[in-house]
């Protein structure tokens, strides 16, 4: 009888990112409580010894995962950074990008929600989530300061639109994320923001 069991892969063949990618799948599926070294080892077809080639322990894996999540979220801000063009055009383009991306990339949203849930009981995760939130809101301010000269109004609008975007991403993921619904939500959010212009 032929043995179809695949041999364990050499630990040198796996990178740190391979482990973190596998961890992302587990976190997306069941949160950080789902993140177990033995489970990851089996999925990757290696022994647990390979894990310790890249990480000191389980805590190191969690911290590394959170750091990579933070770094990637900060890096991607460049893709919807305001360019100084017409404010309405840019606002609608940014909203379309954010809402359509969320409806297509379900795993990415699942990971973000899992990180936010973990942040409720883990101070380190909470600090990283706060860093990401503040960076996103600050970037929103770059756009909305072209609608108002009032710093507090700009900050409030940036926060409101950020919270609305996150909520919309959750609701529009999956079946509800059809093109027409996304377009309507995008239009509604744009009209709310544009309605906050300073009076002439």
UniProtKB/TrEMBL annotation:
PROSITE patterns: HTH_TETR_2. It holds the Pfam family TetR_N. GO terms for molecular function: DNA-binding transcription factor activity; transcription cis-regulatory region binding. Residues 13-73 form the HTH tetR-type domain. Keywords: DNA-binding. Signal peptide: none annotated. The keyword Amino-acid biosynthesis does not apply. It comes from the Bacteria. Residues 36-55 bind DNA. This is TetR/AcrR family transcriptional regulator.
